Amino acid sequence: MLLKASDEAYMRRAIQLSKRGFPAPNPHVGCVIVRSGEIVGQGYHDRAGAPHAEAMALLEAGEAAEGATAYVTLEPCNHFGRTPPCSQALIRAGVQRVVVATRDMNPRAVGGVEALRAAGIQVDLGLLTESAAAANRIFTGAISLERPYVIAKAAISLDGRIALPSGESKWITGPKARAEGHRLRAECGAVLVGRKTIEADDPRLTSRVAGVVNQPLRIVLDPENRLKGHYQVFSSEAETWHITGKIDLESLLNRMQSAGQIGLLVEGGAITIGAFMARDLVDEIRLFVAPKALGSGPNWVSGLNVDHLSDVTAFRFEKPRLVGPDTELSAFRIRP
C-alpha cells in the first residue's frame, strides 16, 4: 500500500464527517470522494434507516465519481439491510480506488473489500485505523463482547454525591454537561434507570439534542412493579421496557442484543449502577463533576461489597475535559 500525504488528509476529513449524526444501532461512517485532487462528494451516516455515508457521497458526486478515489472510514457493507450494499454502489458508480480505514467487525456486513477487488477496484486498507475506530467504540465493543456496550453515567459533586439528603438533585451540573448526557443517550441507543430515579425525578429519558431522530430505547427496572403509567417515561415519545419481577441483568442484555441494540447508558441511581458494576458489566464510566461539595447525601455508586483492593475492577482514565464549569471524567474497563 503506497499512500500519499493527501490520502491521509482526505481520510482525516472522512473521520471528521463520521462523528456527525446518531446512527445507533449502526456504526459511524464517513466518506469523501476525490477526483483530480478535488473533493467532489462527501457524506456520513446520519441515522439508522437513512442513506449510508457512501450513498450520500456518491449522490453529491454524481458522474464525477467515475474514476475517482473514495475514502471510507469503515469497510463498505456488502449486504442488504435497510439499504442496499455500499460496495455495489461504489462499483456501479465506476470508482477507481477505495481507501478504507477499518474492517467491519459485523459478520453480516463483511466482504466489501473482496467485492470491490473482484470488480477490479484498487483497495488500500488500514489508513488511520485507530482514529477511525475510536468513533465506533460502542459498535465494535458490542460485537466483541457479544452484548450491548455498557456506559455508567452520573452527574456528581466534588465529594461524589448525586443529591442532597432531601433528594434534591436539580441541577448539580450545568447545561453543557446535561447536553452531553443527552448526546450519550443517542449514541448508545438505549438508557436505563431504576424505579427510585423515576419516582424522584420523573425524567423523560429522551435525547433532546438537535439532529436526533431515533429516540433511545428507555428501560426502567422496577422489581416490585410499583410504577404506574402516569410517569413521563411511559409516554409515546419513545419505546419503553418496564422490567418487573426478578431482575437478571445478563438476560436483559441478551434480550437487548436480540433486539439489535448495541449500547446501554446506565444513568442510575447508585444501586442500579452498583448492580451493573458488581456483575462486571460496565465497560465505561462517564462522570460529570461539578465544582461544588454537598457534604452529605447518596453517593453515585453503592452495593459493590468489595473486601480486598485486589478485587477492585480495573479502569483506565482518559484525559479529563471541561464541559462548561464542570469536568468530564472518562474511564474504560481494562480487560485481559
Quick recap:
This protein has 336 residues and is α/β, with parallel strands linked by helices. 28% of the residues lie in helices and 24% in strands.
Task: Figure out the total of helices.
Answer: 10
Residues in β-strands, percent:
15-25%
Element string (H = helix, E = strand): HEEHEHEHEHHEHEHEEHEHEEEE
Q: Structural class, from helix and strand content?
A: alpha/beta
First and last CA, distance? 32 Å
Query: What about the largest sheet?
Result: 9 strands, mixed
Quaternary structure of the protein:
single chain
Bin the helical content. Answer: 25-40%
| Structural Rg | 22 Å
Shape: elongated
**pLDDT averaged over residues:** 92
Number of E strands: 14
- Unreliable stretches covering 5 or more consecutive residues: none
Which features does this protein show?
alpha/beta, elongated, 336 residues, 10 helices, nine-stranded mixed sheet, five-stranded mixed sheet
Describe the model.
There is one protein chain. The chain has 336 residues and is of the alpha/beta class. Helix content is 28%, strand content 24%. The protein has ten helices and 14 strands. The two termini are 32 Å apart. 45% of the residues are buried. The model has no long low-confidence stretch (mean pLDDT 92).
